[in-house]
Amino acid sequence: MNVITAVGRLTKDVELKHTSGSGIPYARVTLAVNDGIFKDGKEGTDWMPLLLWQKNAENTSKYVGKGSLVSIRGRYESNNYQGQDGKTVYGHDIVVEEIRFLDKKETSTQPQQSADPSIANQQTQSQAYQQNQQPSQQGYNPAVSNAGSPDGFGFNR
What we know:
- The structure is a single chain.
- By secondary structure, this protein is of the alpha+beta class.
- The protein has helices spanning 54-63, 117-132, and strands spanning 4-10, 17-18, 25-39, 42-53, 69-82, 88-101.
- It folds into 2 domains: 4-103, CATH 2.40.50.140; 111-133 and 146-157, no CATH class.
- A 5-stranded mixed barrel has the order 1-3-4-6-5.
- Strand 5 (69-82) and strand 6 form a beta hairpin.
- The longest helix has 16 residues, at 117-132.
- The chain is globular and about 45 Å long.
C-alpha cells in the first residue's frame, strides 16, 4: 500500500502551471515537515516534494501560499529521465490526492470560508458553538446539542 499523510508548511508560494500538450493544470511545491528528531536542541525537518494536479493545484495556488499549514494525503512516485549529458536523472514526488488548508485566514469583518466544504462546515459549527458559550460557563452547555448530528460530535460528514 502506497499512502503518505503529512502535516507541514509550504516553503514557497504555489505557482500554477499547465502541461504543454493538453493544458492540464499542475503545481510543484515543497512541504516542510518536522520529523520529531532532536539534534543539538533543534528539531529536524523533512522536505517533501509535492506534485498537485487539476483542482488540487488550482485551489492550492488560489487559497494558500508560503508558510501555510496544510495536511496532505498522497502516494510516493519515483521517476527518471535522460539528462542532456546522457546520464539518467532520478527523482521522486508525493502525488497529492487530498490537501486540506489548516490555517485560519480572517478578513477584517469575519473569517474566510475554506475551499474544502467539510472544513467550512466544521468552521461554521465551531463558530456557532463558541457564540453559544457564556464566559462564566465551563464544560457542558445544554443549549448546544450534538444529538442530531450523524456522528454525535456536531459535524455532518
